[in-house]
Amino acid sequence: MEPVLSELLSIRQKIIDSLQRAAVRAQKSGKLPQVPLSRVSVERPQKPEHGDYATSFPLKLARAAGLKPLAIAEIITGLIPGNPDIANIAVAPPGFINFTFSNEWLTHQVDNILSAGDTYGNIELGKGKRVQIEFVSVNPTGPLHVGHGRGAILGSALASVLNIAGFAVEKEYYINDTGNQIGAFSRSLFARYQQSLGIDAEMPTEGYFGNYMIELAKEIKDEKGDSFINLPQPEAESQVGKIGLAKMISRIKQDLELLGVNFDVWFSEKSLYDNGQYSKVMSMLNKGGHLTDKESATWFVSTALGEDKDNVVVRSDGSATYFATDIAYHYNKFVERKFEQVIDIWGADHQGHVSRMKAVVNAIGIDPEMLEVIISQMVTLRRGGELVRLSKRSGDIITLREVMDEVGVDACRFFFLARSADSQMDFDMELAKKESQDNPVYYVQYAYARIASILRLAKERKISFYNGDVSLLATEPELSLIRKMLILPEIVELAANTLEPHHLTYYAQDIATAFHSFYKQCRVVSDDEPLCKARLKLVASAKLVLAKTLRLMGMTTPETM
RNA sequence: GUCCCUGUAGCUCAGCUGGACAGAGCAGCUGCCUUCUAAGCAGCGGGUCGAGCGUUCGAAUCGCUCCAGGGACGCCA
User: Fold this and answer.
1) What is the CA A538 to C1' B24 distance in angstroms?
2) Helices A7-28 & A103-116, crossing angle to 10 degrees?
3) Nearest nucleotide (C1') to the CA of residue A525?
4) What radius of gyration, in Å, describes the C-alpha atoms of chain A?
5) Which residue among A54, A274, A360, A449 is least packed, with the fewest CB closer than 10 Å?
6) Does the CB of A3 sit below 7 A from strand B?
7) A407 touches A429 (CB < 8 A)
8) Nucleic strand B contacts from chain A, 490-519, CB < 7 Å
9) Rounded Cα distance, A70 and A29, in Å
10) For chain A, percent of residues with pLDDT exceeding 90
11) pLDDT tens across A350-401, in order?
């Protein structure tokens, strides 16, 4: 599908170009001294009276040029040729130039949005660049909790944004299916399995004590009977562990699907050993002089790359650390699969891992800039103000599943998405439920449902509006709504550039506000047939914009509420 | 001790690639349902943007120093 070039982004570029050319022309004619011209940028003014776009270019130029900013603004403005799309170009103190779209251009965008349809909001920022985004990647040794939910929602929304921003995105879940914790998991599960058969088995001290392990063991007992107790213990642990692991993974998959999160690839850590890539990258690092042996273990010499300490990659017992397989994994991403950009979303507890991972990426000859790590900060779960522990190893936790069941998937997604990954968040379930009446989630969806209701009525009355004349849209609420709808491509651009999908939630509320206000002030289905048709076009285009935004956030679009 | 994140209205948070009098939701207070959904609209009140210094024509935004909260510093992942 070929993305439709955004009219908004192209008119923005035209404004920038016209400013640039006017400045050059001013210099040629001697009105402006020959000083280096910085790159012109335009921004969106906060106040509507300052127009649709504004530049502070004259202010930036003033010092070097030795002229008053206002004078420069006047000179440049005088040299910008007329454009029917721009109704007004105004100079404002202390030296801004403000541009206001013409109503003709604005209203025409309604038709543009309608013809773009589902592709409205798509931009060509990524130019097909191959991006891998890896997130969640929770050890399959326990159920997902709310912190994982946050990462999952962040990752899936970011992937959607990057996708419509023109990147070739691949979503991946890295399954830690080998190593220490899997061993502990298997031993714990086998102990629980024996217990479920009435055998007095002892849980390993490093084991997983959550109730889900007891249920899991019982499930295996019910399905497979007592056949495993006759095997030698290591064999039995391994087999029971394998079954348990598969069950855990499928449970995680189900929870994520319920949350509206899915992956293109489920990548097995174990496969890195099976296909030899782990040994390959280790010998590569060794050849590069990045490894050293001391205290009978093998270390990655990160101090040589500016880190404050070295890190073990192979333990004295010969087993690989988590860091070591992560090196192989990133080698696989960059070298074997040739991703041009890799985004990892990790929890706050992995924050110390970032710089050594970048160092190692550098050591295997990859520009560390190609690896982008987003740290999603902690979620503190509360219930009526009381703190709920999140530790996976100790007993009972509130799972993501329970939270989803209690507050609803849409609300979950919106709440988690509404905060930037950088800030810790308190998630009080009682509050989330209590506030659900006056929730921003419903506010946005309600706007959508109202739109659907209008279009239903129009259909009932058999009003066809394909030939509506959008130039009849002239009142303030109508034009404000159009202006808000136009921003979507810029929001997509912003979210993709900063990797911050939380902007979407604020945009969604903005557009809902503009619509609710329009709805209150402008009757759509009426006897004034030409106006009715024009407004139906506006409403239909608003539906597209709202649907697109909600879908990007992974939320549902209810036709009625 | 070192490193990372955060500190903006009573509460939860946007804004932070410097720009025009600091924003939203919730909570509080006023009004508005004979017409497409009042889960809505219109309005009011509420902030020394943690503190200080600096850079700049201009700082919530950049730099430095403090203070406070959270997290990380394992041959765990």
Assistant:
1) 25
2) 140
3) B36
4) 29
5) A274
6) no
7) yes
8) 494, 497-498, 500, 502-503, 506, 509, 512-513, 516-517, 519
9) 18
10) 81
11) 999 999 999 999 999 999 999 999 999 988 887 766 666 554 444 457 889 9
- Per-residue DSSP letter, A29: T
Spatial strand order of the sheet with A96-101 comes to A53-55, A96-101, A86-92
Convert A120-177 into a string of H (helix), E (strand) and C (coil): CCCCCCCCCCEEEEECCCCCCCCCCEHHHHHHHHHHHHHHHHHHHCCCEEEEEEEECC
Residue A295 φ/ψ region, left for φ over 0, alpha for ψ in the -120 to 50 degree band, beta for the rest: left
Instruction: Output the six-digit token pair for A352.
Output: 């110390």
Residue A56 backbone phi and psi in degrees, to 5: -105, 20
Q: Which residues lie below 8 Å from residue A496, measured CB to CB, with a gap of 6+?
A: A123, A125, A126, A161, A162, A165, A167
> Which residues of chain A are under the pLDDT cut of 70?
1-5, 384-396, 431, 434-437
pTM of the model: 0.94
**Upstream peptide bond of A94 is cis (omega within 30 degrees of 0):** yes
Q: Which among A182, A179, A203 is positioned nearest to A193, based on CA atoms? A: A203
